[in-house]
Amino acid sequence: MSKWLGLMSGTSMDGIDAVLVSFPDNRIQIHHTHSIAYPEDIRQRLTQISQNQGTPDELGELDHIVGSLFAEAASQAIEKAGISSNDISAIGSHGQTIRHQPRGNTPFSLQIGDPNLIAEKTGVTTVADFRRRDMSAGGQGAPLVPAFHKAFFGSETEDRCILNLGGIANISWLPAGGNQPVTGFDTGPANALMDAWCQYRTGRPYDEDGRWAAEGMVHQELLGDMLSDGYFMRPPPKSTGKEKFNLEWVKTLAHRHSEVSDADVQRTLLELTIVSIARQLPHAPNMTIFACGGGTRNTFLMRELKRACSPLMMTSTADLGLDPQWVEPVAFGWLAKQTLEKRPGNLPEVTGASGERILGAVYFA
Ligand SMILES: Nc1ncnc2c1ncn2[C@@H]1O[C@H](COP(=O)(O)OP(=O)(O)O)[C@@H](O)[C@H]1O
Ligand SMILES: [Mg+2]
Hints:
- The chain has 2 domains: 3-141 and 325-363, Nucleotidyltransferase, domain 5 (2-Layer Sandwich), CATH 3.30.420; 145-320, 2-Layer Sandwich (Nucleotidyltransferase, domain 5).
- The protein has helices at residues 40-50, 56-81, 115-122, 132-136, 145-153, 192-202, 211-215, 220-227, 230-233, 247-256, 262-280, 299-309, 327-340, 348-351, and strands at 3-9, 15-22, 29-37, 88-101, 108-112, 126-128, 160-165, 168-174, 183-189, 288-292, 313-316, 361-363.
- The radius of gyration is 20 Å and the shape is globular.
- It contains 14 helices and 12 strands.
- It is an alpha/beta fold and 365 residues long.
- Strands 1, 2, 3, 4, 5, 6 and 12 form a 7-stranded mixed beta sheet that branches. Strands 9-8-7-10-11 form a 5-stranded mixed beta sheet, with helices on both faces.
- The chain starts with a strand and ends with a strand.
- Bound molecules: adenosine-5'-diphosphate and magnesium ion.
- The site of magnesium ion (MG) has 5 residues, from loops.
């Protein structure tokens, strides 16, 4: 049975998740999982360059460093799984997004982490650069996971919504029976702004279990100001990233409300995540929401989100048989499979592309 290796690092820039997976009878079977954290100095350099601060040399070096780290994550996963690289059909590597600018006359999306290094060091055929073909066909290049959600999480009888809480939040709406089109888009920030503010004010990369936010109060005027950002009102297709929702965005708004305490800003950012998601959910009274991504580990966020989405049912993808931490890496393993089988990986109704496309570039072993 063919095995695939998915490699993912999202906008949170916390580290690389690697998963060894197969798809027997259209089911997901995980064989091994492995994560490595970015060294702190690399995380800082990635943050800088993603804010447009850096030279072409710096970008080139980071492309090499990140590629080496992705290769290392893959090699460790293969070794720990105790299998040979010959047993793996391909690696699907998302890379590390540095900038994502899907709008305007010169749209682009830039992921780094040289795939040549991954193929060379692991001896496994590597598929990467998944987003740009969709963009060339007029799409946003994102989100790409809805095609995977549709393939594995759709139900004949239940309306389902998959909610990914990474740095950015994205939803996939899977109507029961599959006879209505799937929709999916980025709703805005999930953890990105909370992480940025927490790092800036406390030096910690994220607010563990939302404990700091839980000490604060929602400041309604600040929340209203945040929610007036045009992104939340814009209809799909749409996608976003840290070039928009970043520390500067928070600082600009917090500055207008300088009376608000740091903890209250944190609590208000958590509320922004919740309200922006809740407002943009499809209107389907019987749907169940399945959450995934690192945000599901923020217990306070999950409790408040459940409250805001009530009476809708909310649980995690664990109830669909897939641990919430591994949904995105598995999706990129599956996208590599789609590419090598010459099948499309995008959903044009989600990304806005003019049609289905085979995604990615292949770096043969
Ligand atoms: N125990 C926790 N408490 C609060 N937040 C957490 C916890 N564990 C993970 N997170 C959040 O999840 C994020 C990582 O989620 P992930 O799904 O990897 O996002 P991305 O796809 O953007 O890399 C962290 O940056 C942090 O905000
Ligand atoms: Mg991550």
